[in-house]
């Protein structure tokens, strides 16, 4: 049951991540400045989106509890409160992208041409932020109802819209010719190439496409008939919004902390040279891809634990939680094996530079070590979220990631182990990651044992 829920979630995560990958690849084909503008812009809007997504994920255990307790009549009200919160978060994110990017670019000393294109890109993406927030709220509802496949198919629709939109809007008439050949009318070849702005518009279009498709599916799908989600719209309720914020906001903060951990490490590593930066990014890219499966299992575990608790079966909920943790150990072993055996081949796909390849292999060796703790911590957190125990997860995440992981990694990277070693460089930061993830796994395991 867990894997049945988890695999579509994994596919949806990969499809949504692919939109960012496609944007970067197609922007790079247009020009170096456009690539830099889109990359810098992604580093600003992606954390905002992940914070919104995490906060709205609080709806999943709420719906799961109501469904398990056969309180279907209360689900629509809870979902509508989440939609009001999603709309508010999306509008707030749009305003931030319009107002704070210029000062940030000045602080970061972004080159003027890159800053100009990135501002245009973010202004376009801003229009899509309410759409992606509404989609994530409806996705959290569907996941809580044990229906995880719709998010997969609709994410693929978003990707399918994004690719041709990028061709037309980034490259203009040349993009249309690439897609449809010379059979196009003459005026089509004269469409302007918008570069980074076009990429932002395409991203916003795909965001709203997913939101509208998810709304249509939840309105017409037979699986949601008992909920009557769109029969009437419930007004904002202080109690309903408060419940979502109390459960969801700590999830959003925890995800934001995790994102900033890797962002800050990337900034610290940037001073160690191009070879080191390249090796770090390749290792991080590959391990992040493998992380999607344990992450998806953790999200599925939230649903199953929430359903069981809603039914009042406390002992069975404990069994489901620890059974999921045991499965996460198996997945960690599989990921470690895949990582170790395929690393040379995969690294060669990223780069032909022998220095980068050699350094990446040494980092991958460390990454193999934290597959267990990484899989454990994300699934323990998923089980705890099924209990709606999200604030302690947030506290543990902050302490483990920022103090142990980032603080310890920076110490090892710049100072080493006192008289025993010199500065460990990039390896010190990855050892810090191992320590931080292991600390999180131990503390989250202790917490689940106490409440489970």
3D structure, described in words:
This protein is mainly alpha-helical and 452 residues long. The protein is 83% helix and 0% strand. The chain has helices at residues 2-30, 32-56, 59-68, 75-99, 101-107, 112-144, 149-171, 173-180, 196-220, 238-269, 274-310, 314-350, 354-369, 371-386, 391-414, 426-451. The protein is globular and about 60 Å long. The model has no long low-confidence stretch (mean pLDDT 86).
Which key features would you list for this structure?
16 helices, mainly alpha, 452 residues
Distance between the termini: 20 Å
Order of helices and strands: HHHHHHHHHHHHHHHH
**Broad structural category:** mainly alpha
Total count of helical runs of at least 4 residues: 16
How many β strands by DSSP? 0
Mean pLDDT: 86
The biggest beta sheet is recorded as:
none
Helix fraction by DSSP (H/I, runs of at least 4): over 70%
Radius of gyration (Å): 22 Å
Which outline best applies? globular
Q: What ranges have pLDDT less than 50 throughout 5 or more consecutive residues?
A: none
* Fraction in beta strands: under 5%
């Amino acid at each position: 049951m867990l894997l049945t829920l988890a695999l579509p979630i994994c596919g949806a995560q990969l499809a949504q991540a692919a939109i960012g990958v496609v944007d970067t690849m197609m922007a790079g084909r247009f020009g170096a400045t456009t690539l830099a503008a889109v990359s810098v812009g992604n580093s600003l809007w992606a954390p905002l989106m992940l914070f919104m997504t995490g906060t709205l994920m609080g709806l999943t255990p709420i719906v799961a509890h109501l469904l398990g307790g056969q309180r279907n009549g209360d689900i629509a009200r809870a979902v509508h409160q989440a939609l009001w919160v999603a709309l508010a978060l999306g509008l707030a994110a749009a305003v931030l992208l319009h107002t704070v990017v210029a000062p940030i670019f000045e602080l970061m000393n972004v080159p003027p041409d890159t800053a100009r294109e990135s501002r245009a890109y973010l202004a376009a993406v801003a229009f899509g932020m309410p759409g992606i927030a509404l989609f994530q709220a409806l996705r959290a509802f569907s996941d809580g109802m044990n229906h995880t496949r719709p998010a997969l198919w609709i994410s693929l629709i978003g990707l399918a819209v994004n690719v041709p939109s990028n061709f037309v809007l980034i490259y203009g008439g040349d993009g249309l010719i690439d897609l449809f050949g010379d059979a196009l009318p003459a005026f089509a070849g004269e469409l302007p190439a918008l570069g980074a702005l076009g990429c932002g518009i395409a991203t916003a279009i795909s965001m709203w496409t997913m939101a509208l498709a998810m709304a249509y599916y939840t309105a017409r799908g037979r699986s949601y008939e008992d909920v009557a989600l769109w029969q009437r719209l419930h007004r904002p309720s202080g109690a309903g919004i408060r419940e979502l914020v109390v459960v969801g906001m700590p999830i959003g903060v925890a995800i934001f902390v995790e994102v900033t951990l890797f962002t800050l490490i990337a900034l610290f590593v940037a001073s160690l040279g191009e070879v080191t930066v390249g090796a770090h990014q390749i290792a991080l890219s590959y391990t992040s891809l493998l992380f999607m499966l344990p992450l998806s299992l953790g999200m599925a575990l939230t649903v199953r634990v929430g359903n069981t608790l809603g039914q009042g079966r406390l002992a069975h909920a404990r069994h489901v939680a620890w059974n999921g943790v045991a499965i996460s150990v198996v997945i960690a072993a599989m990921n470690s094996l895949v990582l170790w055996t395929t690393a040379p081949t995969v690294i060669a796909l990223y780069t032909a530079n022998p220095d980068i390849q050699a350094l990446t292999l040494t980092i991958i060796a460390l990454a193999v070590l934290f597959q267990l703790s990484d899989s454990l911590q994300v699934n323990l957190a998923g089980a705890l979220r099924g209990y709606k125990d999200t604030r302690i997860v947030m506290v543990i995440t902050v302490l483990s990631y920022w103090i142990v992981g980032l603080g310890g990694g920076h110490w090892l990277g710049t100072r080493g182990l006192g008289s025993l070693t010199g500065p460990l460089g990039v390896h010190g930061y990855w050892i810090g990651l191992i320590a931080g993830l292991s600390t999180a796994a131990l503390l989250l395991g202790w917490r689940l044992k106490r409440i489970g």
